């Protein structure tokens, strides 16, 4: 009904609109900068090199999980099991590392198996959603229960520590720079490469109009499964970061992160209906969530009000993300 | 022959057959599972889920990706509000009901306004609202001690009322009849299906689409509020995030009842069967002697298998 109203805005905000079309993550970037400034106002110390590094190493897991979620959202799907894949990989690698003695070789082998577990979970999700054609929301909720069960089977209670070499590396420095910076740099390279692959375009095409994508000859089912595979892969990478950050295994660590990952994708301006979005936006969206909790803390909000203020702030930026994303869409 | 197969493929028939099968399985695994008293106990639990699912049901029927992820938050909030208002006294029940319904309607109104006026997708709006509600729970909990259920409310939920059946089950049945009447016999009900199957056509036909959608989210909030009140009666006192479990299970109950997540198709009678089915499944898993991890794996896998019986998406055709 209100679709007709979009053409006048094109004329009114031509320049900004074109900029938004080209860089749809700009609103998310603006929000991040505002939050950084707010952090600086309330606590100048929070903008120090040291605190920013800490912020990045704490929220790197959420960033990766939000990116994981983005690839399925591209295709118009959703993955409510991303957080439980993270938990499963987290406990699996911690238990394997411990069992194999915690040396460098054991760590690398465990990480490789962790990636395979992530991919396997993604394959299961892709199979039930795309091949069996179950509805993504309920089907991935069911698989999330299953994955959580597996995680509880591997490690019934939280607490097994990760080997020292692993979390020392994650929290430490390499050639004078914090290790998370290298992760961030590698991530940027990886995302740039992925954004130029055919798969990204195909996922967006499927999300934009599944029927049309099918009729142009795209293997829709296979593409959606690949989206879930990417999601599983990045969820496993997120698990590596959370393991490095918490230095232990916890079968329920990712439970609360799933909905945050969805929120981060929306904050980044991607459309949940698919066909439109950027991974950079999701990265910034995840940072926004992290920065909001830090601002709420540094503002001196009474402890019992912190969750409420944080929830309210997230709701407001979510709305802003949706409105800005809609304006940016061609 | 084809009439029989089409009868057997109706979601509610599928759900009823599965209920009987699961009860039989439960009886095999632990004798006494399908006894009258045990079934009543399961039905009490199912009625709590079913009441939440009633609101979820109308929101989903209304279409345009309608979904309410804030139901769990409203259930928890309402349980706390009710506990504090009545604080163990029967005289406080009526004010508590009023306060809960008001809170539920208020948050439903906020959801509805964001979704219609700002055109925020329901999933995003209600997800954000869930975060706000969870924050609000912490505020209330820190400020005042969470209260106790009034004895009359606990009796209503757990003790037999009429014909040996607890009041909450009668309430659920009444809600079921009311929902069936509303969806099939009233203008409002027909309009829900109309906006759910083709919003634009409904708008052209003069249906106040925005008002309708706001009303649906308010109804959802109020049903969750009622469920929260009853949950307080069931557990005696409210504890943190009691309602969380209902957010996604209410959606599954709706799906198992044969309502399509795309909107415009389905009804509440099936959802009632879906809620009962889900609770029986959980009941069986708690009676069987396996540890928590196995229970979750079996539950997740069974949900997937059961979903195979319901509205799968259409295959791609050129």
TrEMBL record, chain A:
PANTHER family, per the entry: ABC TRANSPORTER PERMEASE PROTEIN YPHD-RELATED-RELATED
Domain of life: Bacteria
Name of the protein described by the UniProt record: Sugar ABC transporter permease
CDD domains (UniProt xref): TM_PBP1_transp_AraH_like (cd06579)
Membrane topology: Multi-pass membrane protein
Signal peptide (UniProt feature, chain positions): none
GO annotations of cellular component type: plasma membrane
InterPro entries: ABC_transp_permease
Record's keyword terms, sorted: Cell membrane, Membrane, Transmembrane, Transmembrane helix
Pfam families attached to this UniProt entry: BPD_transp_2
UniProt-annotated location(s): Cell membrane
Main location: membrane
Transmembrane regions: 23-42, 54-73, 80-97, 103-124, 136-155, 175-194, 227-247, 253-272, 279-299, 305-325
Keyword Nuclease in record: no
Single GO molecular function: transmembrane transporter activity
TrEMBL record, chain B:
InterPro entries, per database record: ABC_transp_permease
Main location: membrane
Assigned keywords, A-Z: Cell membrane, Membrane, Transmembrane, Transmembrane helix
GO CC annotation: plasma membrane
Protein's recorded name: Sugar ABC transporter permease
Organism: Sinorhizobium glycinis
Matches recorded under CDD domains: TM_PBP1_transp_AraH_like
Compartments reported by the entry: Cell membrane
Record-annotated membrane-spanning stretches: 12-33, 39-60, 67-86, 92-111, 123-144, 164-183, 214-234, 246-264, 271-290, 296-313
Pfam families the UniProt entry points to: BPD_transp_2
Topological relation to the membrane, as annotated: Multi-pass membrane protein
Recorded GO MF terms: transmembrane transporter activity
